[in-house]
Design brief:
Helix content is 37%, strand content 28%. The chain is α+β, with helices and mostly antiparallel strands and 271 residues long. The chain folds into two domains: 1-105; 108-265, Rod shape-determining protein MreC, domain 2 (Thrombin, subunit H). The longest helix is centred in the N-terminal third of the chain and has 82 residues, at 24-105.
């Protein structure tokens, strides 16, 4: 045993022996003095223990708060995605409501389709829809939206069809102007930019009395497009030496095509 430990042991034994040989009153006084001496240390130890316990509790709460904060941050990060999806669903729902109203109100026999493909290079010329020969679709059928004429079916496969848009120069339609005897050929324009496409109504009479805001409809001539389908609205008139032309804004929003309708059978158009 080390000398220091031996001395401590001897002192403890000696102190204990001396205390036990004293009278009861002396022992009580010794105990009282001992407890008085160590009382501050006991109180200090209790305070330290309480503080330590409170600190550990705060640490646990802090960790819980960190976890909760991380969870909240994750949920907040998802909010823009959820909001964007909700807006998309609202837009799709509105389109479906308009489509249903159109299908119920039109006098044409139509079948609904979705635009599924569109190339940037031919954005204003063609689109692809998700129905084909399996739905009795064939070339030269008119394609409509709830806003007016979209175009005409060009190529058809078993499950898909290509549509030439009204904004393409190759799509030419016999057209008439409301409240006017004027009749001409409406088509898209070559070299369309990124802006909203415009149409040209050509071969009008030289002295055509037309005003901006007048609507343009199909005549039904040529057995391709049914009569009285809305095409657009006149924006301006250009008079030439032999005839006149009108610049027409399409009634259809060709920048955002979703649900369209292919006309399967011609019936009596509305007056």
């Amino acid at each position: 045993m080390k000398p220091f430990n031996l001395i401590a042991l001897l002192l403890f034994v000696g102190g204990a022996t001396w205390a036990l040989t004293r009278s009861e009153r002396t022992v009580r006084e010794i105990q009282r003095g001992y407890y008085s001496a160590i009382s501050p240390f006991l109180k200090s130890g209790s305070t330290i223990e309480s503080s330590t316990r409170d600190f550990l509790t705060e640490v646990r709460h802090s960790k819980d708060l960190e976890i909760e904060l991380a969870t909240i941050k994750g949920e907040i990060g998802r909010l823009p995605i959820i909001e964007s999806r909700c807006r998309e669903l609202e837009r799709e729902n509105a389109q479906l409501r308009h489509a249903l109203d159109f299908k119920q109100g039109t006098s044409f026999e139509v079948v609904a389709a979705q635009v599924i493909r569109r190339q940037p290079a031919t954005w204003w010329q063609t689109v692809e829809i998700d129905i084909g020969e399996n739905r009795l679709i064939g070339p030269q059928l008119a394609v409509l939206s709830n806003e007016g004429l979209v175009g005409i079916i060009d190529r058809v496969t078993e499950t898909r069809s290509s549509v030439v848009l009204l904004t393409d120069e190759a799509c030419q339609v016999s057209a008439k102007v409301e409240e006017s005897p004027e009749v001409g050929i409406l088509s898209g324009q070559r070299g369309l930019g990124d802006g909203s496409p415009m149409l040209r109504l050509r071969f009008l009479s030289r002295d055509a009395m037309l005003q901006p805001g007048q609507r343009v409809f199909t005549t039904g001539r040529g057995s391709v497009f049914q009569a009285n389908i809305l095409l657009g609205t006149i924006v301006s008139i250009e008079k030439g030496a032999d005839d006149s032309e009108a610049l027409v804004r399409p009634s259809v929003n060709f920048a955002d095509l979703g649900t369209v309708f292919v006309v399967l059978k011609q019936s009596e158009p509305p007056k």
